[in-house]
Amino acid sequence: MIWKIFLFLLLAFVSIAGIAFPIVEKPSAWYEFPLIPGLEENAKIIFFHVPTAWLTVIAFFMSTIYSFKYLRKKNLDDDVKSYAAAQLGMIFCILATVTGAVWAKFAWGSYWSWDPRQTSIFALLLIYGAWFALRSSIESEEKRATLSSVYSMIAFVTVPFFIFIMPRIMTGLHPGSADDSNAGPVVDFKMNGNMQLIFFLSLIGFTILYFWMWNVGYRSILLREKLDKKLIRG
Amino acid sequence: MNSKSYSLFLKDFKSELRTRYAINALAMFIIVAISVILFSVGNEKISTSLTGGLFWVVIFFTAMSGLSRAFVSEEERGTSLTLQLIAAPSTVFLGKLLFNIILVFAMNTIIAVLYSAIFEAFIIQNFVLFLVSFILGNIGLAVSSTIIAAIIAKAGAKGTLYPVLSFPILLPLILTSVQLTLFSLDGISFERAKFELAIVVSYDIIMLTASFMLFDFIWKE
User: Fold this and answer.
1) Residue B16 pLDDT > 90, yes or no?
2) Is A154 within 8 Å of B154 when comparing Cβ atoms?
3) pTM score, whole prediction
4) Which of A87, A102, A232, B28 is deepest in the core (most CB within 10 A)?
5) Are strands A23-24 and A33-34 parallel, antiparallel or unpaired?
């Protein structure tokens, strides 16, 4: 219970700090952020966009790990955990795409320009969508779990290409592309100390939130299945 | 194992030649797809890069139309259980893969020839590069399509689900192959395309390995 209160306070602080702290030329007070040329006020979206994108990859990774566990032990609980992770991954993927498109609008001028990283988040959205479509087309539980686990692992093989390789080697607009001389505001430390602090706090806060949501999610699905079985047996 | 997969491949190949069902359907599909493009484009002049992209559009949808037959026909005819009994999973996969590779090569050769004949902007300047990327891309296309065909053969809505599942898996291959096709149309030298060729080769190897390892789980009931 204590850690839930702590998480609430952490995320409240991050949200308020992320949105309300002013951006000034020469930050002097502890609550002021530096001015990054080209981004100005809009830099604050970094506190929300990067964590959602990061969580999408984590959720997908976890979904695949539990798929792998299912294929080895054939324990349906692992399939439920994989499903709960994928549900959250889908939500975060949509959020990452939307926040990315909003950032793109004022940084690059248009919502969507098929930049390699935008293409790769779109590909991830397609993979999640295809996975859910596959699951909904199979009736039998074990077959559904087996086939969706296999698809998850095949898709996972292509993910490193999308997330880590393609955006960095191809020329593009997103920070970190091949023709970007700096690696972006995060790695290049254009952010000063407090901005980095808020950023990492946001990352940590969202990650803890994700694990909590996933835990609640898979336990509720397991409980629902137990109840269904009880009702059938009478 | 090799001779067994080869006999499985021969069985599919011979029965295909006998009925010619898939070949006819695919040939008609290719003609229809290219006709639709021709009619939509009308009298507009299309650039070389556009024809390169459209080339892969037709290849993708023809593959989606034809490559699932390898496994779906076994399910429909009720022979998949027999197949499970007589051969190890990797043997079955190898046989089906061989069949799909031959099918992909045949289809894509027809598409390439038709494209060269119909679209004036589609002139291959660096033929060696085109040939190499053609062979590598076809192998990758066949491998991914075969494993996804195995998955959907056991699922419900087979036809509509196949492109949905295949597209994200094929996306790295399509993106790189379109680049390579554009390079060969523009006459870029083989040296400068080495990076993209490396990507396609690694895609082929990775998908082949992953498919062989995962096919056992799909195949065993």
Assistant:
1) no
2) no
3) 0.86
4) A87
5) parallel
